[in-house]
Design goal:
Length: 500
Amino acid sequence: LTLHVRYIQANFPDFITVITKLQDKEIDTSLLNLRNSFNQIAQDDFVIIDRLAILLLALIITALVTIIILLLRSQRENIRLKSLQKELEYLANFDTLTGLLNRNSFNRALALKSYKQPTLLLININGFKHINDLYGSDIGDYILQSVSQLIKLPLFDTYTPSYYRFGGDDFGVLLEAITEEKAYLFSETVTQTIKNHLFIDNEIEFDVTVSIAINSQEPLLENADMVLKHHKKSASEPIVVFTEEFGLKEQIQNNINILQSLSSAIDQKRIVPFFQPIVDLQSGRIVKYEALVRQISPTGNVIEPERFLKLAAQTPLYRELTKMMIEQVFAAFESEPYRFSINLSMRDLLDRELMQMFEKLLKNNPKSAPRLEIELLESENLSEIDVVKHFIALLKSYGCSIAIDDFGTGYSNFSHLAKLSVDTLKIDGSLIARIESDEKYLQTVQTIVRYADALGVETVAEFVETKETALKLRAIGVTYGQGYYFGRPGPAILQKEIVL
């Protein structure tokens, strides 16, 4: 028996050998019960394994579906964002009424030196305000649209023409490498074409004045505009050409006077910050202030920055002015609870000495730094993107935030904007000022708000001058408002609540 058992165990290791004194029938019954028990265990294991497999499969399917949904949602969001970008790029570069390029496109063309020898024909409709008042804005718009097409003369085609509406009733034709004689002849053709055109069944008649700024005389538009205004006051000829001698002596002397006055103001510490409140449109509470530079004359009069800032930027006085402003603003808000903003230019960011001073202020004012917002002008060409990104990273390390100022009217480089990690878009006041009277501007602002929402940034509307405008901006989702309705810039930091 022992040999049999060993043989079975050696050759059949999976078999269970049972030695018992039970009878065959009892053995059969016991073995049957044992087999059934093993079968039940195996079946239960299979059920458990089967359930685990189903659960695992369900989890895998759920994960895949979730990933697909997130990818589709991200794709839709990217498509929506790109659509908004295209819409805003169009609004930033084209006039919505006429479809012509706008002033921003003109400035960009000159900044990029797209025209090596540019000549500008600046075309102004004579008496347009009277036409608009007499016949209404619909007829006025029709006139503007008609003129925008009439200035596209085939004879311009040889000279790489670009056509612009600069705003109001001012149009422009930018040409490449054209002689003064040709430009004058073309201007005569423009004036005759418009004068001879039949508007509204010949019921409306008007003519235009053309100012010509030739080749490399910069700034082209300002020169053409200056001579146009001067010419319309004193002459009846429809065409005038800007010359270098025109007003040059007066302009030089005026600039000298402005810079001398500014230099004295810096020495005598008459450069001061004024503060304008920025209000939460939902609560009506003042949440922050923008610091704006002002020059105080020896007699105590306030001189607006438009009088001196652009000229100062071309001189070493600009650095001193900026340093004085920044230091005073930090001192003013050291004990105030409000957030505050300072405007900096691309020139400031590239000024190493100024930036070192600025970082020192951030280190020495750890409580103020998280409340500081730096406003960068969108109208500047932020081509030094690495410098800007480095500066923003520095600010963020101290808890500061970033705003893009005058958004909607500048270069609108959206690829740069997406890289800059901005916190706020400040919608340009020229758009806000017209939302009550022109639906197109309201639609533009709504598009900017949707774009800001897609980026996850806040919005500030500038130039809010009435309660109606504030309520309309709140209704379309603008975060904050700034303008005379909430408070004019002043030397004191106001503390009040606005009831909308």
